[in-house]
Amino acid sequence: MSGLGGGRLRIGDVTVGGRVLTAPMTGVTDLPFRRAASRLGAAYVSTEMVACADFACGRPDVVRRAAVGDGLPLMVVQLLGADPATVAQGVRLATTAGADLIDLNMGCPSKEVVGAACGAALMRTPELAERIVAAAVEATDRPVTVKMRLGWDTHTACDLALRAERAGAAALTVHGRTRNQFYTGRADWSAVAAVKAAVRLPVIVNGDILDAADATEALRLSGADAVMLGRGVYGRPWAAAGIDAALAGAPWAEPDAEPRLGIVLDHMADALAFYAEPHGLRLFRKHLGWYVERAPWPAAAEVRRTAKARLCRLDSASEVERALVALWASEAVTEAAKGPALALGSAPSYNAPVSAGGAA
Ligand SMILES: Cc1cc2nc3c(=O)[nH]c(=O)nc-3n(C[C@H](O)[C@H](O)[C@H](O)COP(=O)(O)O)c2cc1C
Q1: Which CATH architecture has domain 9-247?
Q2: Is the pTM of this model over 0.85?
């Protein structure tokens, strides 16, 4: 089955209401983030990766990663595992929890994950990867998708893609880097074209896509059916919806300062309700930092850094809220609101994941 075109993507029996998907990101795409992005129009936002073995044991933090949220257009759960039976168990749990789509992680490069034979390590054991996909497909009536890289150190994605297709996968996402590249260099969108040519499944191209121009170029070079944004959504939960609109030819601009403040406050309130203070506030600090770095102000990087550091030192949510409102009302912001928004990508901190276990 292939993409539908016309701004939608068909994955098995599921129609995704857009062609710009938001990637699974550990420590980022938790339920409060997914709700924020969905409120802003994102058609598809995946959970963080959920380790099947820990999920099956009921480890609370892992179960929380798979939390279903009201108001999400789609519940996409990403699972991680190296044993077909354990993955099948995770798939059954995710299905019972209400997943609409189940994605299998075969791209995480972290030492801890590949050391457990999971994630990108499966690109070196394609027979096992194929059995995992088959076990997952067998365990659910939901479409199963696979997210992979171009290979371990050479481009072997076509082999894994064909195996995944044979085992019943409904779509594939390819991050245009090898495992050994981690997050270095540029994602190779052209290399994803070989995967698109090899399979009949919808293919989603991923890596270094920030704006509508990138998305258009990634689609052109790869021939893929859709794009997936990862770090481009830092401090921009509206990005997928906006780029989707731009691809469909609709006028779209980055939100001004004022609506952004509302988005930050709503996101923070949801994070605090979900995790409770003080944990919720600690977890929200990274988002706070990204919102400030990417706010549409004329302020120099140094001013942003100071503002961010000050916000991140505050210990209570009410203090953070007051400080945010004051910051947004400060001259720098009101001046910027009259002028053009910050250019996309001009002030991101494009941090690759730092914790070995925490990211893919
Ligand atoms: C902080 C962080 C966490 C990530 N966590 C996951 C994950 O849980 N599962 C996964 O498949 N990929 C994960 N990734 C990889 C992204 O989904 C994506 O493939 C990668 O960042 C490339 O896209 P980008 O250049 O648009 O960021 C993570 C990436 C980052 C930066």
Answers
A1: Alpha-Beta Barrel (3.20)
A2: yes
